[in-house]
Amino acid sequence: MLTNERHAYILGLLEEKQTVKIQELVESTGASESTIRRDLTDLEQSQKLERVFGGAILPGRNLMEPSISDKSTRFLKEKIRIAEYASSLVQQGDSVFLDAGTTTFQLIPFLKDKDLVVVTNGLTLVEALNEQGITTYLTGGLMKPRTGAFVGSHTIQALQNYRFDVCFLGINGFHPDYGYTTPDPEEAAVKQLASLLARKTYALADHSKANKISFAKIMDLDRATLIVDEITKEANAGLQKKTIVKVVTP
Amino acid sequence: MLTNERHAYILGLLEEKQTVKIQELVESTGASESTIRRDLTDLEQSQKLERVFGGAILPGRNLMEPSISDKSTRFLKEKIRIAEYASSLVQQGDSVFLDAGTTTFQLIPFLKDKDLVVVTNGLTLVEALNEQGITTYLTGGLMKPRTGAFVGSHTIQALQNYRFDVCFLGINGFHPDYGYTTPDPEEAAVKQLASLLARKTYALADHSKANKISFAKIMDLDRATLIVDEITKEANAGLQKKTIVKVVTP
DNA sequence: TCCACAATCAATCATAATCGTTCATAAGCA
DNA sequence: TGCTTATGAACGATTATGATTGATTGTGGA
């Protein structure tokens, strides 16, 4: 069996089953463990897969380590639901700002075939957007290791060259008195500016963010339309004058 | 069996089975191994197939896109060697520009603990740099899907805010008359500007780039110091007036 | 929690397969 | 005959492979 054949075989199996085990490959190809190991190393080098203990998985899936992958599974269904609704607010040909974050990330699959121009400050987002074939600009700037978000003066300056039809922000808390908040002032500044540059801004959050006050203020509630899955009565009461879209999670 | 017949036979078999092995061809045609080898070499020359170790495969729709995977493994040892040497040219505390590319990518492991500020326009590089804990700015801009490089006016403008002590460029060809070249004019523009912003520029290339002329010109040879592993005498003769550092691959 | 055991890993080495090159021979052609 | 081209064999060089080793990592029980 040729090296390329094995490589193709491994990738085929991987595509089909999402994961492959080394032992499984040794048996099915007849090659030695060492060879399979080398194959996996090579394929990882070329970004075709990602090695894990005992085998390999498709790449990119858990690229952004626990900091994000943990968060992204929490309320994942809700986030997808929110994202799906949010995507319906985008018109064909719009220019869109997508904030770095796990909720906005879920928007990407729904944006295909809308002929958009997307600007983002999220590293993981630009990769996913490219996979979908969407024209994407990354703001650039200083990268925050844990979240993969770009921030700082570079980012701020780069943003000012753009104007958006729609701006989607991920937020960490919303509160009737304190507005939208997020833990990092640097990221808050980026969100703030992006919103100013957009005709319409939407803040995306699941219900766990209700009445929560994170460290840095982004803006008042009435500066953006909140899209949230469900909120308690008390939270609702405080917010009732503001613009809210409630998405019911099925 | 005539040469043309064998050629046709090989291509037919290849079309049918996607891959052919040399031994297999030796047996089925009765020709010697040398002859089959020559056949494959000829057919590769005329782009009818692509040789791999032990046989040949169909060209183009190569399961492993050569765009990234092949390039990054081709001359890998040389690239690492070149990168190691290049890293010795960086001083503690320098500000560095790292061009997007596979050779510059190999530099990253050697830059640890040098307390640098690195600016890059390469997506894959920013990830690797972050893993090494190096302070990194990404230029941002429009992302080119195949290479992961950011280019365009956004990138150009973002770059202008920086000045570098050292600038490392990956190049696709160098030639005494035509200078440094690369296939993409957009990327050429970025390389060009980065070099202007740096006190010292180094062009990194393995010997396969010698005397090659890629599409877009970056600059003349004397505008950057060339770091290359080995070059033929003829290539060397044409270059001898310029600044070249030759790295011997062990 | 800690420890021990099993599985997996990276690194190394020797071997086998394959490669490019060279040279000599054979075949085709004027 | 003299010339070119195709072929096959032989060689050392390169590359892929498989087995081995000691280190690392995950797992399950005390």
Automatic annotation (TrEMBL), chains A, B:
It comes from the Bacteria. SMART domains: DeoRC, HTH_DEOR. Keywords: DNA-binding, Transcription, Transcription regulation. Residues 3-58 form the HTH deoR-type domain. The keyword Transcription applies. InterPro entries: Carb_Metab_HTH_regulators, DeoR-like_C, DeoR_HTH, NagB/RpiA_transferase-like, Tscrpt_reg_HTH_DeoR_CS, WH-like_DNA-bd_sf, WH_DNA-bd_sf. Transmembrane segments: none annotated. Pfam families: DeoRC (PF00455), HTH_DeoR (PF08220). The keyword Nucleus does not apply. This is DeoR family fructose operon transcriptional repressor.
